[in-house]
Amino acid sequence: MKIVIAGAGAVGTHLAKMLSHQDHEIILIDSDEEKLKLIDSHLDLLTIVGSSSSIKDLKEANVKKADLFIAVTQSEEVNITSSLLAKKLGAKRTIARINNQEYLIPENKDFLNSLGIDEFVYPERLAAKEVINYLSRSGTRQMYEFSGGKLLLYGIKISSKSVVMDKTMAEVSQITGDNDFRAVAIKREDQTIIPRGHNRFMRGDLVFVISKAESIDRVMMLAGKQKYKIKKAMILGGSRIGFKTASELEQNLDLKLLEIDKNKSIKLADALDRTLVINGDGRDLDLLREEGIHKMDAFVAVTGNSETNILACLLASKMGVKRTIAEVENIDYIDLADSIGVGAMINKKLLAASYIYRFTMDADVQHCKWLTVSDAEVIELVAQANSKITMGKLKDIDFPEDANIGGIIRGDQGIIAMGDTQIQEGDQVVVFTLPSAIKKVEKIFK
């Protein structure tokens, strides 16, 4: 596939890195020559110094032959303009990054679709949705729902209280004796393991599980986790993520939002109905104590500074908050933050890149998500007629070793995948895969 990416910022660079390993022809266009030189020295792609809103520069990028044009610059206006131009010049499909909720209102979206923008990606909206998912299921990490909750994917840390610690997957299967959940990956230190029957669960492992909604309590019990209800939460940072999260949750939770900028605090207080907005520095321990952080069930740090968010979550955890969520935009900090117990983490560029990535795949992909603290990706694919995946029971199909089928959505039913399961045409199949297996998985489903 020929893909033109406009914008060598965090999202564009990460997306280019992901795609450059998948046999695509990638062209990256940006006005910053030094930034492009650095990227060019590390990735196998073509870079062009120029403006994505310039017809001349788009023609130089040969956008007329592009299968996909992705505009992810920092400017919403540039993204919209360049996507419209790219479509008129011949690009088959266009995607624009936006920062404004109004473009997702159906009539506005339909209008822009008619002009030539096929898809929109709004990273802050994706991040807010992620935060809301995390807060809805206590004790889990990386919560993700498929088909309205028919199947759930979540990560759970194995504690010393867990009955599965030091047991193999085969032994755990004998203990549980049911088919309502399945471990599809294990994150151990800096390694992501696609587990088989002989693999053991060890203390500190982050285990990714596919299950039905009704089985989550049982999985938590096996992992040594206690369920608790989140009633009170504190949000640090009045960013678009913080505002969106508060506006979605304030009807159901007792919320406090801390914002250091006085003018922004006033605007937030006017815009939010039931959230108490406090103008102050969330790094001030005395202020946190005064505002009752020790009484909070959850603490969400979504300022524009990764270091501040990490430190604030560590402080909140030390002061007794059970659930902490940090926005960590510096990818290099993610593993470190996980190892020191920050809690759940979100990263806008990973979320945006995952959302866009599914449009680059040959198979019929419904959803795609790159998991923040692992090297793996979870993909929801639709099984096509006469595809290899439908040709027999899963145990008889030569499925890649570095990938795992977790579950199937068939009609309104969620099914946990087992060796005797046979996938049918039209099934939505949840696959957990390492980057090395993505192309192999696509071929099996085509």
UniProtKB/TrEMBL annotation:
This is Trk system potassium uptake protein TrkA. Residues 1-121, 230-351 form the RCK N-terminal domain. InterPro entries: K_uptake_TrkA (IPR006036), NAD(P)-bd_dom_sf (IPR036291), RCK_C (IPR006037), RCK_C_sf (IPR036721), RCK_N (IPR003148), Trk_Ktr_HKT_K-transport (IPR050721). Keywords: Ion transport, NAD, Potassium, Potassium transport, Transport. Residues 141-225, 363-446 form the RCK C-terminal domain. GO terms for cellular component: plasma membrane. It comes from the Bacteria. Gene3D superfamilies: NAD(P)-binding Rossmann-like Domain, Regulator of K+ conductance, C-terminal domain. It comes from Ancylomarina salipaludis. One of its GO terms (molecular function) is potassium ion transmembrane transporter activity.
